[in-house]
Amino acid sequence: MSSIxxxxxxxxxxxxxxxxxxxxxxxxxxxxxxxxxxxxxSSGFPFSAKDNLCVKGVETTASSKVLSGYMxxxxxxxxxxxxxxxxxxxxxxxxxxxxxxxxGINAPEIARNPFDxxxxxxxxxxxxxxxxxILKYHVAIAESTGGSIATPASFCGVVGFTPTYGTxxxxxxxxxxxxMDKIGVMARVAKDIKPIFDLIRGADGYDSTTTNSPITSIxxxxxxxIDQLIGLVDQRIRSLFEKLLDKLNSMGYSIEHRSLxxxxxxxxxxxxxAMAEASTNLxxxxxxxxGLKVENxxxxxxxxxxxxxxxxxxxxxxxxxxxxxxxxxxxxxxYYFKALKVKDLLFNKLNEILKEGFIIMPVMPxxxxxxxxxxxxxxxxxxxxxxxxxxxxxxxxxxxxxxxGYDNGLxxxxxxxxxxxxxYSIINFVEEWEENFEYKxxxxxxxxx
Amino acid sequence: MYIxxxxxxxxCRLSLRNxxxxxxxxxxxxxxxxxxxxxxxxxxxxxxxxxxxVEVLRKDEVRPFDDIDGLLKNTKTYRFSVVGPKV
Lengths: 449, 87
Known about the structure:
The complex is a heterodimer.
Chain A: H1 3-9, H2 14-31, E1 34-37, E2 46-50, H3 77-84, E3 88-93, H4 126-134, E4 139-144, H5 150-156, E5 159-162, E6 182-187, H6 193-200, E7 222-226, H7 227-230, H8 235-250, E8 254-258, H9 263-281, H10 301-309, H11 314-326, H12 333-354, E9 358-362, H13 371-376, H14 379-384, H15 390-395, E10 399-407, E11 410-417, H16 423-434
Parallel strand pairs in A: 2-3, 2-4, 7-8, 7-9
Antiparallel strand pairs in A: 1-3, 4-6, 5-6, 5-10, 9-11, 10-11
Chain B: H1 5-11, H2 18-35, H3 68-72, E1 77-78, E2 81-82
Antiparallel strand pairs in B: 1-2
């Protein structure tokens, strides 16, 4: 039984929701999963929305000062579809500013790992993963551009599903990189993912990249490991991962190895495209239309605009600079257009491999870092940490992250990737995994004893 | 690849303090140097970007948006206009 079905069969009144919100408020003061909590929730299965998804009349900031106070006058398509089936909005979840980060530390309040609050929750959908880990009955609507669902799901010990690009409408999403942004789902068990995916997916007249292509469930019982990617992984994670492969082998999966020699090129390609798109998207925050108001109308436009942009965080400024640079007339062939060609090349290579079976790998090359240690990394070191999550995200392949072990009391996640529109197969794969492995949670807010 | 950092800041309309500027310039140069790895990838066929999956295009027709008040709530207004800087 999915927890959505279990919840529907439970008797609960208004008091249930009041207690849920009170307990959540208390814990949230420490773990910073939510940027705001809906105190009016009184019925229905609770869902949270990453703070880059528009919910009518609810402050939506993408954890950026530049959007403080912004109240969307409409609901994102995913939110509208959830409301239409009686799901209840619990709040907006914390994230790296505009999705720019891998550890959740580029935010005014840093979301903390519920298993040990000294450690990162992962990013950029940091709050979505923490919320899923601490709430017994809840699903999180998150978003991934380069690994923002898989990474936090892995660090917080929950299931994180990123669908095929184009299956879920991005209408009402605050854009980071339009060609790679994907709205997905986090839940405590894979069984909760499919009904939500079925509800939110499908063509939408407000997003021309959406499609009604049928979703398949083809599982060839073959798992492919890409040697160069595994070569990047820390020894502790690698030994845990090898144990996972042994278990999967005993479950009837054959394990095969393939080679893919363009890891650095895929990281570079991803960041060039993502930054190029982000630098244009962030130009809309002019200081008088959304969120933050500069109000010094005596100034000329350029000066006014510069003042508004001072509210961006350091990583956002870095991406504006790099994204603008790679699009410059004298270098765009070398960087931006070459990055698009490399993306195509990678897509074709991965697509061939995926015809043979699922690709499997750890989500992150390192164990969960402490917040203080993550802060010491240089931006380039952080970008390179995304080596394993970038390939499926850059190419729009569906992938799912699931917990498969615990290292020093902290969860460790792996991810499986499949061909486009074969999304059901990997959700089913994790359901099968869950028959053989029990997930751990430190908190169970909303549990009825 | 040489970057005229001052010019880039101006184009981006970003203003940084001197200490921020020095750190940011160093980091950006390091990242651009890393991006040069793309030079090592040989693309045999110059294919157009082909991984997008556009299947459904809606009719190009106007759809009215009713909540004008909601839109204006996010701006400073004067009579019937949105107040902005001098252009």
